Amino acid sequence: MNLSHIALAGVLVLAAASARADDLYFHSSDGPMEIHIDQSGRVHGRYQQESGAQRPGRLVGTAGGNGSLEGLWLQPESDHPCGYPREGSYTWGRFTIGNAWGAYPYGSWGYCDEIPNRNWQIRR
Fold first, then answer.
1. Rounded to whole angstroms, how far apart are CA atoms 105 and 116?
2. Are the CB atoms for 57 and 46 separated by under 8 Å?
3. Which terminus of the chain is less hemmed in, N or C, by CB atoms within 10 Å?
């Protein structure tokens, strides 16, 4: 193995180490939330609303290098359906969760293509 192969192997090891696979669990204003981040940084999660319509929801998105998560929330139905489907649902919107691995995470969400501007209370 020559020096360029060793350097390339080192870069690949560093890139793999920077991907953060993890499971996160929160209590949110919508109920319990469970989020899985795979090695590639993709986010898959679910939550269950405990009050009101008690709709199950899911999350899909990506993990950012700054400790944030962002993507789409999706539900089977809502009082505010969107004009077109995403991930097979007409009930969706965008979300962000900041400080996801910290002691005090925070989140926001919006309907459909709206910029997330509604507070999503999240705690460990």
1. 15
2. yes
3. N
CA-to-CA distance for 24 and 32, rounded, in angstroms? 11
Tell me whether residue 49 is in a domain.
yes
Residue pair 64/83 in contact by the 8 Å Cβ criterion: no
The pTM assigned to this predicted structure is 0.78
pLDDT, tens digit (0-9, with 9 covering 90-100), for 3-13? 444 333 333 33
Q: What secondary structure letter does DSSP report for 100? A: T
Domain that holds residue 74: 20-123
Task: Tell me, yes or no, whether 1 lies in a domain.
Answer: no
Length of the chain in terms of residues written: 124
Q: Cα angle vertex 68, ends 66, 70, to 5°?
A: 135
